[in-house]
Write a structure and sequence with these properties.
This protein has 16 helices and 14 strands. The protein is α/β, with parallel strands linked by helices. The protein folds into 2 domains: 154 residues, 3-Layer(aba) Sandwich (Rossmann fold); 219 residues, Rossmann fold, CATH 3.40.50. Strand 11 and strand 12 form a beta hairpin. It is globular.
């Protein structure tokens, strides 16, 4: 019997299967810019991920965790009151705030911790801004019985006190970072340094689609469940795809997760960056809007710069968005025109925080409120269309801060 020659299929691959390349590049963005000793660890993690993540045992256990522990799938919800108030356009929410721990972060944290279990790692290390990634990883560590160390800037520790308490209750060691601006960028620096002390026995569970390859790929793949679910649910609810999908973008994990489900569809994708106090340097964290190409934390992307090629100071009312760069896949998708970038300032986000709370009984995370705020503006511009927003987290963590700084908003009419 002669051997059968198999020719490559000409059927187009889904978008998520074509990027990144074998070196971790999305076009010219991404890659791995780390010291040789760390590159060896990155190569080992990549090889293990590529093998383990496709194994039957890994897939079976992760799916069981998502169903029986996380409570997936999370629902898609139609905001009738908000939509009626705005007039015309229909706003829907993908309710990641109902995912266990209150945000989308657990999607990749359980995946990363499960990978660590298969690799025999003895410690999970991570950074956190708003605290949701820290809480999620602390939860994963408790579930798998693996010690967890979370690095968090002093400013964010003060702003997000409820999440700090949750991390400690779950058994995580919280490391306070006092250098620089004492926010997310410095927390990443500190976590990387801790990881480098023992990369053999520990694993760095990065909190977004950033960092050296394979982290942007891994986090996207673990978060892609959001987009897969949302697409199926929206079609079932309405019989059609949404016209627009909106999500906030800091590093970009929640937005990449939901966008990945719609990349091959005729759907407009909007990433909403934090404009903060305005367009001035140090007043925002809108990397794609005001940044330029550069390398930080081991990957090439678009970043806000200070002196020379160094990362510049950033700010946002939402601690989970104040990062001076953005995931390389976001930079790539924006560079080819597949996604659009929008911005939302602090005051707009605070207004949306209260508006969604009053009209729908849903208190959003300040990060998610940026996406809700832009969606309300888009609804007025496109009164006949459907808008799907990724409500990436709930606002329990923000209540004390919001009422202390913006309590006067509680007296407004919405």
């Amino acid at each position: 019997m002669s051997a059968t020659t198999v020719t490559p299929s000409t059927y187009p691959l889904p978008a998520h299967r074509t990027q990144p390349d074998s070196k971790g590049f999305f076009g010219r963005f991404g890659g791995s810019f780390v010291p040789p000793e760390l590159q060896k660890q990155m190569d080992e993690i990549n090889a293990a991920y590529q093998s383990i993540s496709r194994s039957h045992d890994f897939i079976r256990e992760l799916r069981s965790i998502r169903t029986h522990f996380q409570g997936r799938p999370t629902p898609v919800y139609y905001c009738k009151n908000l939509s009626d108030k705005l007039g015309g356009a229909r706003i829907y929410l993908k309710r990641e705030d109902l995912n266990h721990t209150g945000a989308h972060k657990l999607n990749h944290c359980m995946g990363e911790a499960l990978l660590a279990k298969f690799l025999g790692k003895k410690k999970l290390i991570a950074e956190t801004g708003a605290g949701q990634h820290g809480v999620a990883l602390a939860t994963a560590g408790a579930y798998f019985g693996i010690p967890v160390e979370i690095h968090m800037g002093e400013v964010d520790i003060a702003k997000e006190h409820p999440n700090v308490v949750r991390m400690k209750i779950l058994g995580a060691k919280v490391v306070s970072v006092s250098r620089g601006l004492r926010t997310l960028k410095e927390a990443v620096d500190s976590a990387f340094e801790s990881y480098l002390q023992d990369p053999v026995n520990s694993i760095y569970c990065i909190g977004s689609v950033v960092g050296p390859h394979p982290f942007p790929l891994m986090v996207r793949e673990f978060q892609r469940v959001v987009g897969i679910e949302a697409r199926e649910q929206f079609l079932e609810m309405t019989g059609e795809l949404p016209d627009n999908v909106v999500a906030c973008v800091g590093g970009g994990s929640n937005s990449m997760g939901i966008f990945a489900g719609f990349l091959d569809d005729p759907v407009e994708l909007f990433g909403v960056e934090p404009l903060g106090r305005g367009p001035g340097a140090g007043d925002n964290a809108a990397s794609l809007s005001y940044g330029s190409e550069g390398v930080m934390h081991g990957f090439n992307s678009i970043m806000l710069k200070g002196e020379g090629e160094n990362p510049g100071p950033v700010y946002s009312v939402a601690s989970g968005l104040d990062y001076p760069s953005v995931g390389p896949e976001h930079a790539y998708l924006n560079s080819i025109g597949r996604t659009q970038v929008a911005t939302c300032g602090d005051e707009e986000a605070i207004y949306a925080f209260f508006q969604l709370s009053r009209l729908e009984g849903i208190i959003p995370a300040l990060e998610s409120a940026h996406a809700v705020a832009f969606a309300t503006k888009l609804a007025r511009q496109r009164p006949t269309q459907n808008i799907l927003v990724n409500l990436s987290g709930r606002g329990d963590k923000d209540l004390d801060f919001v009422m202390e700084k913006y309590g006067h908003y509680a007296d407004k009419e919405y």
